[in-house]
Structure formats: structure tokens, C-alpha cells
Amino acid sequence: MNAREPAFISASRSARLRQMLVSHELEFMMEAHNGLSARIVREAGFKAIWGSGLAISAQFGVRDNNEASWTQVVDTLEFMADASDLPILLDGDTGYGNFNNVRRLVRKLEQRGIAGVCIEDKQFPKTNSFINGEAQPLADMDEFCGKIKAGKDSQSDENFSIVARVEALIAGWGMDEALRRAEAYRQAGADAILIHSKLSRPDEILEFAREWAGRAPLVIVPTKYYSTPTEVFREAGISTVIWANHLIRAATSAMQAVAKDIHASETLVNVEDSIAAVNEIFRLQDADEYSEAEDRYLSSGRAAGAAIVLAASRGKGLEAVTEDRPKVMLPIAGKPLLRWLVDAFKKQSVNDITVVGGYRADAIDTAGIKLVVNERHAHTGELASLACAVGTLAGDTVVSYGDLLFRSYILRDLVESEAAFSVVVDSSLTDPENASVRDFAWCSAADDRGLFGNKVTLRHVSSGQEATSAIASQTPHGRWVGLLNVRDTGRERLQAVLGKLQARPDFDSLDMPTLLNALIEAGEAIEVQYVHGHWRGVNDLEDFRRAGDFAHAQAPFAAAGGSKTNDASGAMQ
Ligand code: SPV
Ligand code: MG
């Protein structure tokens, strides 16, 4: 869009095209042939688009002989008009029939927001002017004048333009015939005359312009006399220059080179850096607007949920089975632990999943996830891993340990929580004597099924690092399972608290409970969702061995081979 001319831009497309035709400046139109190229033309700064018959037929892979039907052309124009707010002048060939077809064409073009049409005085079906032009029969001049009149009479927008294209020079009928026809078309109501030439020098065009003497705007297509300095057209009083086919030709040579290279080399590495990035295609498609609209209009509440999965560790006590892979890639009932977790997230529409890898991150299956790597994983803890991903945090996000299996309702209830921060605490685990278990949780109230629905908040979680706190002398209310839900409303506060912890000299050794406790100290209410079993962490070989049974029990009956009963009793841990 041309920001220099706001008044021009706010006018309708047809008014802008008409303004270009009648202005005393030399104006330019660039060819486009689909929505993408129409957008590219606009971004390059052009003020209008030429809907080239040659380019549109070529992108369909058919000949410029009216092989594409006129409705197929009009459908293509609709995509172009949607993709770009520029005025479009359609190359309407001969008008696709007689005066009646022109009337209908004009009405349909107006309905699709097309600013004007150019019709040429040849016979339907036409052939491109550069293919044996002299052999092509011209239309009867009076009949063509009738088409122009019919088109002008049927437009409902006074600014819709009809450009009459004179093919007399192409067909070898001479300058006098070209001038005679141009004058007749002007009198029939044409808003501009396109005078076409297939010579490599502009001489006949310039002679025509001299004789024409500004009776109506003149449009030219210098495809063949391309070496003429543009200043020459300006001095000749030309209204508009059409660069008629250069984007389809540019696309063609780029596609030929890339296809040839990939075929010969059987790899993408040679071409990747020289072609548009996939993200550039997304940008041209306006993919961001779609994401924003999704946030506004999708009612599911968590349509664009995100997750950060901490998966950097090899797994203490699991060294025997993690030589070649991190803990999260251990196979549980036939699929990696991480895949169980990812599938569980996807089931709750938590689709934007960032996994923070570390130890043997190269072995992580990245299908459906984004992988970031904590390069310092060997010397750092959970918060250092979280910090690797937290910069990209957007929207509602679940932070999860990577070694979890759980029943689906646990995640569903967590992500449905409206609280800025919420965690899952298992009230079946309250024995702090078990030294191998950390993450004990003290809450504002014990799990009490009778008080179902009451809000309970987290008061403290035992951390691997901290000195025993006063609260730890009391019996805990359960164990934090490793799931934290951060609503969009809490995101910046979480980032701020994490930022403060990052300033501590011992940050590299800090774990997730330290973050939860820091949030609590900062005055945040962390809502507790109690569960009673129904989940597993994989912390040692014994957990690993038993996780298969648990996982089988989560699978549909068919996949689980009927072993559903393992999980029927409740507490799993
Ligand atoms: C087109 O772009 O389809 C034209 C111009 O009609 S030309 O191909 O030069 O005839
Ligand atoms: Mg054409």
C-alpha cells in the first residue's frame, strides 16, 4: 500500500484506476495471476494490477486462447481482489463473446470488486498477440464499438473503466487503421485506448501517440520494446505502462531452476537458503491474522493452549536404560514417555508444545513439538531449563515435568481452571519419611471430598535445595505431581519472579518447587486441584517397569489388549 497517498487509497478501487488513467503522471501497472502474486504486487508498491490473460492462463497450465473459461478467470480475480486492495484492470481478451457477453462480464466484474476491463478488437477465441499476430483476424470495427457501448451501458459504478485495445498494428493493418479504430472506440465510450505493438523498438507506438495527441488516455505494454527508457514514454504523454507478464516469468524460471536442482541432487540443501522461507509464505497468507481471530472467536477457551515440557535430564537411577536417549524417550507400552505426554496435551487442545531437551536431545522425537535445548543441562537444574523456553511464553501455558503419565481428566481440569496459577496435588502421598520423594505440598486445606469445589491454595512445596522450612515439620497435604498451569493473566508475573530468581548466584541449581515458593512469597495465589492417584512419574527403574501397566490402562480397550483393570482401584503411586 502506498502510504504517501492516503486520499488516493481511501477512494474506491475503480475511482483509483480511473484516476491513474486520467492523471498527467506516467503510471504503472504490474501483472498478477493469483492471490499470492497480487499481494506481492501491492507490497512492491504498485498502485494497480494488470490481470493478464497470458499469465492467468499460464498459471492454469493452459494456452492463451480462451481455454480457461471466463468464469474461471473471474474466480481467479476474486482471489486476487481478496489478497490485495489494489485496483485490478482485467485483460478481458475479446470480452468472451459478443456485446451480451461483455454486458454480463462487466456486471460480474463489478460484483467482485474489479476496477475495469480491457477488451481487444480481435475475434473470439483469441490468440496471444505475440503468436503469429499478423495472421489473426480483427473484429469488425462497428461490432466492437457496440461491445464498448454495451459494456459502458451496463456498468453501475460510474468509475468502472473500459479500456479498448487496438490490435491493428499487431495484425499489420497500419497506422491509419489503428488511429481510425482508436477514434471510433473513444467515441463509443472507451475510457482509455491500449495501443499494442510487437516491435522491439517503440517507433510505431511513439508515432501513434504523436498523432493521437492526447484525445484519451493511452496505455502501452512494452514487453517487446522493453529496452526503451521509461522517460521516453513519459515525454510521449503515455498515461499508463503495463508490465504485463514479468511475475509469471520470474516464477517460472525460479521454479524450473529449483525443481531441476532438487531432482538432480536428491536433496533440499542447495536450494533452501535461496527460496522463500515457509514463514514468508505464511506472512503473505496473513497467517497471524488467523491466529488473532482464533483467539477472538474460538469459544473453547483454550483453543491455543501451550505447554513447556522439562525434558533435559537423563534420569537418576535410570542410567542403565538411558545410554542413548533421555528419560523422556524411554518406551512405555510401546511408545516413548514424551509421546504419551504430547498426546495427552493434544487431546486437551494444548497444541503449542515446547520441549526443553538437554541430555541426548538429539534423540528426542520432534514430531508435533518445538524443541529447545538447554545446552548447560549437565550443570543446571529445572529452572535453568524453564528459562530456555519461557521467553516464548504466550497465552495460557502448562509447565510440566517430562516424565509424567496421568489420566486425561487431570490435565483437563487443570487447563479449565480460571486461576492465574494452578497446580495438581496428589493427596494420597503424604509420607515425607520416604526420602526418595520430593515435591511435598502443604496447602491451605487438606483434601476433603465433602468440601468439593472449595478453593484450596498452595502454601509450600518441598524443594531439593532449600533448608527445611518451618512448615515442613507439619504433615504435608500431598505431593505436587509436576503440573503447573499458568494462565495468560499470570504469565508476566511468572516471568518477573523467574527473572528475580535468575539473579541469584545459585540459580543454576534451582528446581520447580523453588519457583512455586517464590510465587507464593510474591503474594500469588496458586490454586490446588487435588487428585488421589491416577498418575505416575518415572523416577527410577521400578517406576519405569510399572509405568507400562499404567500406560496400557490409559489406552483404548483395543490398543490396551484388555488390561484395563490395572488402574481400576484408584491410587497408582
Ligand atoms: C496479456 O498480458 O495477456 C496481454 C498482453 O494481453 S500481451 O501478452 O503482451 O499481449
Ligand atoms: Mg492478453
UniProtKB/TrEMBL annotation:
Q: Which UniProt keywords apply?
A: Isomerase, Lyase, Magnesium
Q: Which InterPro entries match?
A: ICL/PEPM, MobA-like_NTP_Trfase, Nucleotide-diphossugar_trans, PEnolPyrv_PMutase_core, Pyrv/PenolPyrv_kinase-like_dom, Pyrv_kinase-like_dom_sf
SUPFAM superfamilies documented for this protein? Nucleotide-diphospho-sugar transferases, Phosphoenolpyruvate/pyruvate domain
Q: What is its EC number?
A: 5.4.2.9
Under the heading NCBIfam families, the entry gives: PEP_mutase
The UniProt entry's sequence similarity note says: Belongs to the isocitrate lyase/PEP mutase superfamily. PEP mutase family.
What is this protein called in UniProt?
phosphoenolpyruvate mutase
